[in-house]
């Protein structure tokens, strides 16, 4: 069994690298969790189809994009934190006998894992994280196990090795997002440890809906809606290619009828999908309302989206900046990418792992 770290150990030098269908986003932090400093902010797009659901399909092409990104931004740190999509990782909280030796705990975790993982363990990358004593059974310890197909981990490892980098952490994407969002909960909702918070990460093709209370994620689901759908609407309405539509969308160079003919229907459809998703959440948890909605991701910066979501879901909705409350190093103060801060929440959460281990 390949015990690659899905939780990892402390790294002295580590940058967060978010690899998605959009492309590659990199964040580097220094300082501490309490007083982080943003040192590095960089990104590079890749063509549609080069990366699908966090898996690199066009390895050589994406590796060259990554090498170019490293050269252009003079990135010297060699260890990176990566993430697998939640759909590619099986997580399960189990109980084991307290006070086991590390070797015995590893053996028991492996035995327990066989019950929950529908693949031969020889084909799996497995790790576990000790959570402490079980509140109801003090003679037992809670342990969180995480497992992914080894080929998914090796896919990311191959990419970074082609760029002469080293994998320091392989994280679960939703955990990295939660780490980044938790900082913002502390900033926006101080002292409200039991607030029900909905994180909406609007990506290129999917939107993650993550509900958390305090430290715990109580529900999570993906919705098949994202920024690519707006690009496709623009392309169809104005007879553009997808690449041309994406460029026009980013620059805002669109005709006067864009808001009424394209943007408004897209926002309406997005809100309807999210409303249906919230009904699933309400039916599956003890909660019937969220106290705060955090909107983030590259597709979140659509004009009017936050206000429409707030109205439909009847909760305040804020477009969040994952770097809020951080100091900016001189080399990033004038970085134009700061205007697209929500795009970097995944990379930010991965970069924060430097402080959280």
Descriptive keywords:
alpha/beta, 9 helices, 16 strands, globular
Task: Please provide a written account of the structure.
With 357 residues, the chain is an alpha/beta fold. It is built from nine helices and 16 strands. The protein has helices at 59-72, 102-116, 150-162, 173-188, 227-238, 242-251, 258-284, 305-313, 345-356, and strands at residues 15-19, 23-31, 36-45, 51-52, 55-56, 79-84, 89-97, 124-133, 140-149, 166-172, 196-202, 207-213, 216-223, 292-296, 317-319, 327-328. The strands form four sheets. It has a six-stranded mixed β-sheet with strand order 10-6-1-2-3-16. A five-stranded mixed β-sheet has the order 13-12-11-14-15, with helices on both faces. A hairpin with a 2-residue loop joins β4 (51-52) and β5 (55-56). α4 crosses α9 (345-356). The longest helix has 27 residues, at 258-284. The relative contact order is 0.17. Residues 1-11 have low confidence and may be disordered.
Largest beta-sheet details: 6 strands, mixed
Classification by helices and strands: alpha/beta
The residue fraction in helices comes out at 25-40%
Radius of gyration: 21 Å
Name the quaternary structure: single chain
Specify the overall morphology.
Answer: globular
- Strand segment count: 16
Calculate the mean pLDDT score and round it.
88
User: Count of helical segments?
Assistant: 9
Beta-strand portion reads 25-35%
